[in-house]
Amino acid sequence: MDALSSSLFSAFPRLLPGMIIVSPKDNPHQLPVFLVNSAVKTEDTPQRIITDGLTVRNISGAEKRNHSKSIRVQPPPLSQRRPTSPSPSAAAALCNTLDDLITSFIDPPHLRPSVDPRHVLSRNWSPVDELPPTGCPIIRGAIPSCLGGGAYIRNGPNPQHLPRGPHHLFDGDGMLHSLLLPRGGGTAPATLCSRYVRTYKYLLERNAGCPVLPNVFSGFHGAAGIARGAVAAARILTGQMNPAGGVGLANTSLAFIGKRLYALGESDLPYAVRLSSNSGDITTLGRCDFEGRLSIGMTAHPKKDPETGELFAFRYGPVPPFLSYFQFDSRGNKMGEDVPIFSVTQPSFLHDFAITERFAVFPDIQIVMKPVDMIVRGGSPVGSDRGKVPRIGVLPRYAQSEAEMRWFQVPGFNMIHALNAWEEEGGGTIVLVAPNVLSVEHALERMELVHSSVEMVRIDLRSGTVSRTPLSAGNLDFGVIHPAYVGRRNRFAYMGVGDPMPKISGFRKLDFSLAGRESDCVVAARNLGPGCFGGEPFFVPAGSRSRSDQHEEDEGYVVSYVHDELDGQSKFVVMDARSPELDVVAEVLLPRRVPYGFHGLFLREDEVRAQSPHWV
């Protein structure tokens, strides 16, 4: 969720294209060495950046032909979450001292609650250590057979080190919490595993024993932000780190693309990970640029067409073009050239979008990037612009340029997450369903004050008119639908209740067919009870993920992690998606608490088994 950081650091490789960082394999704790490569570019120019420990190197075309199983990133021993660090070099020690001085003397003495670690990392937001695969008893009901052998995996922030100075919720290192369910369902134990995504940032700071890279949402504010940027530049120039290895956190979501599982974060390229179908363990395979065709980063919310298998995505950032659109085929190969969208004239926070069968639908909202405000006025690099009129952009799905991009003003509509979109009236009307963030000025600073109202927006492509229908006044977000209905007209959605955001105090089921006929389209509800909070719900269909099978759209189960802040226990909960109270049909007691997080997914047993076993 921090695309700004990728652009801030991505300039360094272009300025110093020959710079690489090498950490000797026989001593992974030895500080990286700064090298300058003056080799002439040839036809075997490397295409894929592979991270192996702290080595950042490229695999040439010839070398790739001789590598298959060997090109992987193996995780370090389990006990090395906070290893004893070697004595830093003089340059590293100086930079560490400067970072401490910035925290002590330049940061404001009283931090805002949104970036105060004592507040941000309290209760169940506090970080946990990694957990190897551990058995978990079924304490209520039984796992439905359609979930058997599958796995629920959720991503979220979990800082490796206690932060220096300010820390925003979005700034934590990505950790995956996976629950592998028993084959065939029933009451056999499940397996929980929690692993960090081995990003370049994670490995760099693990070896350093302290935070090294500044946090974009909390570290770049005013004079302190400028000072931290200068220290980061000094670390690069003295060979302590190489931004070509990536600066992202991979802490936002997951996607299953072409038989490979990826951990996603907007500030970097996707990281390929693998879940073992036998042990339930999670391994980071590496950072993927899709044969050199993907640069800088990608949205954490790509959209997969359920019938063609194609994947559609975008990236955004603080430098033009502020938005670029691209796609992947059903095998996970990036297709064609990026489509730059220059009609987005101000860098905005474009976290999510939607697709229909023929169009891609983009929001342009009032949350914007303000790097100049940070430098000149000492403000945040991301904030709200109440004078901006929100827009919705519609682009043909297979467009080769933005020539056919159309924008429609929708005053007061600020969409951060999308539920779905589809076409009606022969493609002449686009229907978009999404939560509208009403208190946009609090979206990043005071999330507990955020309120989202779900709306249905109809865009008449012929007349250019836009109409809006409220579906629920409840504070609902983090929604999900049946995956077979992405881009197609659907009826049901399942959402989390913010009480307050970003905590989820319950779940709601919405029926879109009631739009305009009922004041509230909520048709089923479950409250978690005093002191209990969950995460994003995920819908798992009872049958196949095809609309052509004999199952109804809402025939399936809603799953989520739930934590009880009163007794400290965490559970995995399975709910009947068709029941009026979303009845619990199974509960798995987890061996330790699972922190709150962001987005997840459920892999069916056949998908778990179909994962590519190696980095190739």
Compact description:
The chain has nine helices and 37 strands.
Distinctive features:
about 625 residues, mainly beta, five-stranded antiparallel sheet, about 15% helix, globular, dioxygenase
Structure description:
The protein is mostly beta strands. Among the domains are: 347-472; 478-591. Helix content is 13%, strand content 33%. It has nine helices and 37 strands. Strands 6, 32, 33, 34, 35 and 36 form a six-stranded antiparallel β-sheet that branches. A hairpin with a 6-residue loop joins β14 and β15 (311-316). Mean pLDDT is 87; it is low at 10-53 and 55-83. InterPro entries: Carotenoid_Oase (IPR004294). Keywords: Dioxygenase, Iron, Metal-binding, Oxidoreductase. Its cofactor is Fe(2+). One of its GO terms (biological process) is carotene catabolic process.
Chain-averaged pLDDT = 87
Q: What overall form do the CA principal axes indicate? A: globular
- The total beta strand count reads 37
Strand content: 25-35%
Mind sketching the topology for me?
Elements: H1 3-15, E1 19-22, E2 33-36, E3 48-52, E4 55-59, H2 61-65, H3 90-106, H4 117-120, E5 131-136, E6 138-141, E7 151-157, E8 174-180, E9 190-196, H5 200-208, H6 216-219, H7 222-237, E10 253-257, E11 260-264, E12 271-275, E13 282-287, E14 303-304, E15 311-316, E16 323-328, E17 334-340, E18 354-355, E19 359-364, E20 367-369, H8 371-377, E21 382-384, E22 391-396, E23 406-409, E24 420-424, E25 429-437, E26 452-460, E27 466-472, E28 476-480, E29 492-498, E30 504-511, E31 522-527, E32 532-534, E33 538-541, E34 556-564, E35 570-576, E36 584-589, E37 600-603, H9 605-610
GO biological process, one term: carotene catabolic process
Binding site for Fe cation: 301, 351, 417, 599
Biased composition (Low complexity): 79-90
